[in-house]
Amino acid sequence: MDWTGVAGWLKRRANDVVVFLLASMFAAFLLQVVFRYLLNLPLGWSVEYVSIAWLWGILFGYAFVVSDADIIRFDLVYNAFGARARRNMTIVSSAIVAAIFALSLPKAADYVLFMGVERTAFLLIRFDLVFMVYLAFALSVIVRALVEIVEAVRGHKYAEHHTGMEHDSHV
Fold first, then answer.
1. For the chain, which residues make up each domain, given as ranges?
2. What does the DSSP 8-state code read for residue 76?
3. Strand partners, 126
4. How does DSSP classify residue 36?
5. Distance CA 44, CA 2 (A)
6. pLDDT for 26-45, tens place per residue?
7. How confident is the model at residue 159 (pLDDT cuts 50, 70, 90)?
């Protein structure tokens, strides 16, 4: 079985989900404008839908669509240091991030499951389904932080001055 082909297909489908969420958010927004300002009939569900779609778009997008190279980081101070210091800062900061998310994950999962008793006001979607995407996001943050630690320990991308922009030479 060609796992890279499967992974590529899954990544494209995840990208399709985010595209659908953005397009449907825009459509719901336009409907709200038309109904509120032209027909004087405000739609309560559209605001709720846009809020949920935005939440899912951001968290699902980070978890399954955005690559590590696409993440914007504030690195003015970071790049002022040498390769060894940057490696150490990456290891420490990634370990802190992974630990915080890993320690909070069980309580977050408990809360998400608990929210299954409530529903949204207009669309009547169970809140556990609304917030379930946070668990995928948190797991993604943990995995990315652990990968950063492994890469920093290996040290291959810290041999020269690393700005995070080397991969963008096609821009």
1. 1-66, 70-163
2. T
3. 119
4. I
5. 46
6. 999 999 999 999 999 988 89
7. low
Q: Give me 17's structure tokens.
A: 């989900």
| Dist CA 25 CA 166 (whole Å) | 34
* β-pair partners for 116: none
Q: What is the pTM of this model?
A: 0.82
Tens digit of pLDDT for each residue in 122-136? 999 999 999 999 999
50 contacts 103 by C-beta, under 8 angstroms: no
Could you identify the residue written with the tokens 């991030």? Answer: 97
Pairwise CA distance, residues 48 & 124, whole Å: 10
DSSP SS3 for 119: strand
Chain mean pLDDT for the chain: 89
Residue 108: CA atoms inside 13 Å, Cβ hemisphere, count?
A: 15
Own/partner pairs, 16-23, CB within 8 angstroms, 24+ separation: 17/60, 17/64, 18/57, 18/60, 18/61, 18/65, 21/53, 21/54, 21/56, 21/57, 21/60, 22/53, 22/57
